[in-house]
Design goal:
Elements: E1 2-9, E2 17-19, E3 25-29, H1 36-48, E4 68-75, E5 81-89, E6 92-97, E7 100-101, H2 105-109, E8 114-117, H3 123-126, H4 129-143, H5 147-166, H6 173-212, E9 219-224, H7 233-239, H8 241-247, E10 258-263, H9 274-296, E11 301-304, H10 307-310, H11 313-324, E12 330-334, E13 346-352, E14 355-359
Parallel strand pairs: 3-12, 3-13, 8-11, 11-12
Antiparallel strand pairs: 1-2, 1-4, 4-5, 5-6, 6-7, 9-10, 13-14
Helix pairs in contact: 4-6, 5-6, 6-7, 6-9
C-alpha cells in the first residue's frame, strides 16, 4: 500500500497541507516543533484510528480550530485505489471511505496499513500490556478476516458481564451465565488466533533481531492468554465470579493478555537497556510489516520518526538497507536528512511552521 496524496487540516500545527509523497523514501526535514511528526501522525491516524502519541484524540485539534480532517488517496499493488478520510465534525469523529461515511472506524482502518517507529516505541517492550495487545490485534485485523467479528463479540459480552458485576449483590446465574458462555467462546477463538499469529510472526522478528541485537543471542516470545492456561476460560470465569463481583469487573480473559520477550543472554526484559528496548521494538515492528507483506502481498507504509536521534549511524544504515531493497513507501523525519540517506534516492519535503513544501 502507498499514499498517492495526503491532505491535512486542523491537525496540531498543520492546516491546509497537501502533499504527494513518492513511492519510495520520503524525508521530512525542518526545525523542532515545525510539524514533521504530525505528518506521520496523519498517516497513522488513518491506519489505527488513534495517534501514536499520548493523549486523547481531542488534543490533536489545532489550537482554536473547530474541525480536524485527514484525507488520503491510497493505492494497493493490485491496482485498487481508495479515498480515505477521518475527521472531527460537530464534536464527533467520522470515518469515510470513497466519499461515504464508513459503517465503523474499522472499515477505514482495514483499507490503510501503516507501522511507525518513533520515540515512544520502546513502550512495546517496556510499557503496559495494552500496548502489546494492540500490536497483536492490529496485525491480526489486517490478515485474519474473522478476527474483528470475534473481537466485537467478545467486547459486547465483556461489557454486559461487567454491567452485571457492577450492579452489586449476587449475580443471578440465569443472567450472567449466557454472557460468560459468549465471553468464553469468543475469548478462546481470539486466543487461538493470537497464538497462530505469533507463530507466524516470530520467524520474521527473529530474522531482524539477529541483526540488531546479535550479542543477546536467540530471541523468544511467550504469549500469556490472560488466565491460567491449564484451565478453560468458561470454567475460570465461573470460578472467579465471586471475586470479580467484589472488584466490579472481569479480571480474566484475552483483554488481560500479554506477551513477554526474552533473549538467551537477557532472559528478563529488565536486563535490557533503553537502547536495546528500542532496537527490540524496531525488530518487532519490521517483523510485523514483513509478515503483513507475506500474507497480503504488499508492504505497509513504514514511518520512522526522528530516525537520526533514535538510532546510531550503524543501525540507521541497517534500517535503510532493509527498506531500500523492498517495494515499500517510507516516511522519515529529522531536523536534517539523516546521514544514512544522504547518498540514497529520496524525495525531500521541508516543514516549517506547519507548512510542508516539496524540495526539488
Amino acid at each position: 500500500m502507498k499514499f498517492d496524496s495526503l491532505r491535512i487540516a486542523g491537525l496540531r500545527c498543520l492546516d491546509g497541507v497537501t502533499l504527494s509523497p513518492a513511492a519510495g523514501i520520503n524525508v521530512f526535514v525542518g526545525p523542532n516543533g515545525a510539524g514533521k511528526t504530525s505528518v506521520l501522525e496523519a498517516a497513522y491516524l488513518l491506519s489505527h484510528g488513534r495517534s501514536f502519541r499520548a493523549g486523547s484524540r481531542d488534543v490533536l485539534l489545532k489550537r482554536g480550530a473547530a474541525t480536524l480532517s485527514v484525507f488520503a488517496e491510497v493505492h494497493s499493488d493490485d491496482g485498487r485505489i481508495r479515498r480515505l478520510g477521518l475527521g472531527r465534525e460537530s464534536g464527533r469523529w467520522v470515518a469515510r471511505v470513497d466519499g461515504d461515511a464508513a459503517a465503523s472506524l474499522g472499515a477505514l482502518v482495514q483499507e490503510c496499513a501503516v507501522v511507525c517507529f518513533e520515540p515512544g516505541s520502546h513502550d512495546l517492550i517496556a510499557g503496559a500490556s495494552d500496548e502489546r495487545r494492540r500490536f497483536l490485534d492490529w496485525g491480526l485485523f489486517h490478515v485474519e478476516h474473522s478476527f474483528v467479528g470475534q473481537w466485537r463479540r467478545y467486547q459486547r459480552a465483556l461489557k454486559q458481564r461487567n454491567v452485571l458485576l457492577r450492579n452489586g449483590g449476587p449475580a443471578e446465574p440465569s443472567l450472567i451465565e449466557p454472557w460468560e458462555s459468549e465471553l468464553a467462546g469468543a475469548g478462546e477463538a481470539i486466543t487461538t488466533m493470537r497464538r497462530d499469529y505469533i507463530a507466524r510472526l516470530l520467524p520474521h522478528i527473529q530474522g531482524f533481531m539477529g541483526n540488531v541485537l546479535p550479542e543477546l543471542g536467540a530471541f523468544a516470545l511467550r504469549y500469556k492468554p490472560g488466565w491460567d492456561e491449564t484451565a478453560d476460560l468458561l470454567a475460570t470465569l465461573t470460578e472467579r465470579r465471586h471475586r470479580d463481583l467484589a472488584r466490579g469487573h472481569t479480571t480474566v480473559g484475552p483483554h488481560r493478555a500479554d506477551f513477554t520477550v526474552s533473549f538467551e543472554h537477557a532472559p528478563l526484559r529488565e536486563h535490557l537497556s533503553r537502547g536495546q528496548e528500542k532496537l527490540c521494538a524496531l525488530a518487532c515492528l519490521l517483523g510485523q510489516a514483513s509478515l503483513h507483506a507475506e500474507i497480503r502481498g504488499e508492504w505497509p507504509v513504514v514511518c520512522l520518526d526522528d530516525l537520526a536521534s533514535e538510532l546510531d549511524r550503524t543501525h540507521q544504515e541497517w534500517v535503510v538497507a532493509q527498506l531500500l531493497g523492498r517495494d515499500v513507501q517510507v516516511f522519515v523525519t529529522g531536523t536534517e536528512i539523516p546521514s544514512a540517506l544522504i547518498e540514497q534516492p529520496v524525495t525531500v519535503f521541508h516543514v516549517e511552521q506547519g507548512v510542508v513544501s516539496a524540495l526539488l
